[in-house]
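Example record

One chain of 366 residues, shown exactly as stored in the release files.
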Amino acid sequence: MSDCCEPQPPKVTPSCCETDEIKKARPDYLLWVSATLVALGYLLFVTLVSQDEMAAKLPQWLVTATSGIYELINKMWWGLLMAVVFVGLLERIPRELVMSALGQGGTLKGVVRATFAGVLLDLCSHGILMVGTKLYERGASLGQLMAFLIASPWNSLSLTVVLITLIGWGYTLAFIVLSMLIGIISGMVFDRLVASQVLPANPNSTAQNAEQSNAPIWPQIVASIKQASFTPKGLALLMWDGLRDSRMVFRWLFFGIVLATVIRALVPLDTYQMLFGPTVAGLFLTLLAATIIEVCSEGSTPIAADILTRAAAPGNGFTFLMAGVATDYTEVMVIRDTTKSWKIALFLPLVTVPQVLLIGYLLNQV
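Predicted structure tokens for this chain:
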């Protein structure tokens, strides 16, 4: 359930997803190269850089990069362990349970439930995108689709735990609540635009069964708990499944660590704070960077945390996380293919980006 790759719509294949044929044809170079660089950087710091005499003989960029890797891994290790556990647990939750939790389309309740459903699923941004297209095909309203996509990508349980290790409980909870708020507001705006015929309605909406959308969820949750195995073998299998299915999480997190530490090594702190500091110019530069950098949600998490901590700009960190979803060209293209409407696809950044910038600006003033 945590696998990034879902059945793909035609024409567009997100960069984080690979077909089974591609996986069999070649190894996951991004995962192994990123993991190797992180491991080497950590070992170099422990064996050489941590010793003052040796550190003085090494290039400053290497000292900065390995120090960054050591710091991030020491903060994130327990979050990564919990990510494996959560992914294993969510693997055992029937996806139909989450789908049936969406509720009636075109209503505030339906949009709120779609937002929470997106937060519940432990998928990367492109994996969430694939699930969202299936929801639309099953009759979810346009507002539910957008709320599901906007609020969910980095709000999975595993990434939430990792984010807590990097920026603390306070900012993490604030980011989650604010991203859900943007998802709910955007969902209601899209449903209102459909009601006023500015945007086309979902042609599959008649296929949504009202009884199914209003079916009680708790009996399904109780049934899932009863089917769970709490034996040592069952717990070992849970951990194995979590480790196996966390590949995409680790893949992009390691890449994000490498990218964040490279930025640390190449961009001096005063320059970094000037470029991405808590100013209007820094906020727009962060928006531009998030638009250009095609990184899956797991990879954006360490970078956003670095912007918050090193540039002292919480609003910019929030903007980097959210704008990557709102302006991602892959997301725009898949929405266009799914809805058969360029208008709907282009309304995604039009509706969401102003909200992201406003909240980012307010966070920087706190």
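Notes: The mean pLDDT is 76.
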